[in-house]
Amino acid sequence: MMVMLEFEKPILELKSKIDELKEYTHQHDVDFSEEINRLEERLKALETEVYGNMGVWDRVQVARHPERPTTLDYISRLFTDFFECHGDRLYGDDAAIVSGIGMFHGLPVTIVGHQRGKDTKENIRRNFGMPHPEGYRKALRLMKQAEKFNRPIITFIDTKGAYPGKAAEERGQSEAIARNLFEMAGLRVPIICIVIGEGGSGGALGIGIGNKLLMLENSTYSVISPEGAAALLWKDASLARKAAETMKITAPDLYELGVVDQIIPEVKGGAQNDVGQQAENIDRYLYESLKEILHLSQEELVEQRYEKFSKIGQISYE
User: Fold this and answer.
1) Rounded-to-integer distance, Cα 309 and Cα 28, Å
2) Helix 226-234, helix 240-247: angle, nearest 10
3) Do 47 and 11 touch, CB atoms closer than 8 A?
4) Within 206-297, where are the H helices?
5) Closest to 135 measured CA to CA, from 180, 179, 94
6) Distance (Å, whole) CA 39 – CA 14
7) Are strands 153-159 and 220-222 parallel, antiparallel or unpaired?
8) Closest CA to 145 of 88, 192, 194
9) 230 contacts 242 by C-beta, under 8 angstroms
10) Within a 10 A sphere around the Cβ of 103, how many other Cβ atoms?
């Protein structure tokens, strides 16, 4: 079932009209080729206009698209010989975090990423991509292993936030995230983080400290959701669109602020429209980013990471 976003409505309606004409032509042997060609030209112009002028709230909706590719979608297309590892060796396994070892262009790497579901059953199993403490501890276990064997680390960020439930708090949710921030800052191997959907709050930061931060063009990265910000600022979560426009949470805004190192272009309309092509785009940027930092020594990697984050939020009065 196709999910229609509000700003895409004119495009999808025109596509439906074209499909109807093609079907009628096929069934009744009536030549509507001239009309179809005219509508297809109009469709191209409309797509250029709509997708070329997406607003902040439009990008938020694309980042949340239920069919948007997940970490596992990209792992299967970017890496070979992927071997998933489970468990934090303390409590259990968290399906909201996927982690393992694979090959990227012949180089052994460790991969960690948030994982949400594509349907209700899988979303329940993966807790809608909201990790418990054991998920972050599993991630850290794999990252420390990567440091031991000198493997670069690649993380995929895609979560509304860490799970805020009572059980998660009882098992040390805040400590687990804080521990990851502390440990990732000092890991002596290259770390590249890629925001592929929603990057929400500390749940995103828990695997988001790296030498390079890349964002897909229509992804978001924020300290709180627009709904949460609206509820705090104006006591009205329905003002989420207004909040999103003031929060600077999109890739272009964050690139301009120096938070993001590179923006990865998305296929027309969003990554969900062509996962294979989107994976190729990520592959190209990931390869170039790795090549930039692989030559750095262990000490230089830690120093570069420190410098990167210490510059965020600085204001120049020149």
Assistant:
1) 64
2) 100
3) yes
4) 226-234, 240-247, 251-256, 275-293
5) 94
6) 8
7) unpaired
8) 88
9) yes
10) 13
Distance CA 48, CA 45 (A): 5
In this structure, the dihedral spanned by the alpha carbons of residues 274, 257, 287 and 297, taken in order and rounded to 10 degrees, is -160
116: nearest Cα among 194, 192, 197, 61: 197
DSSP result, 86-139? ---SSS---TTEEEEEEEETTEEEEEEEE---SSHHHHHHTGGG---HHHHHHH
Distance CA 221, CA 215 (A): 9
Q: Hey, is 45 helix, strand or coil?
A: helix
Strands of 27-132 (E only): list them: 80-84, 97-104, 107-114
User: What is the reported pLDDT for 11?
Assistant: 65
Two tokens at 150? 């000198």
What six digits make up the tokens of 185? 């800052």
Distance CA(274)–CA(69), nearest Å, equals 9
Rounded Cα distance, 29 and 238, in Å:
50
- H helix count then E strand count, the chain: 14, 8
Query: CA 37, CA 219: separation in Å to the nearest integer?
Result: 34
- The token pair at 123 is 């979303």
Can you tell me which residue has the tokens 């990209």?
A: 74
- Token duo for residue 292: 């930039």
Burial class (CB in 10 A: 0-12, 13-18, 19+), 286: buried
pLDDT tens, the chain, 318 aa long: 456 566 667 666 767 777 777 777 777 777 777 777 777 777 667 666 666 667 888 889 889 988 899 999 999 999 999 999 999 999 999 999 999 999 999 999 999 999 999 889 999 999 999 999 999 999 999 999 999 999 999 999 999 999 999 999 999 999 999 999 999 999 999 999 999 999 988 999 999 999 999 999 999 999 988 988 999 999 998 899 899 989 999 999 999 999 999 999 998 888 988 999 999 999 999 999 999 999 999 999 999 999 999 988 776 655
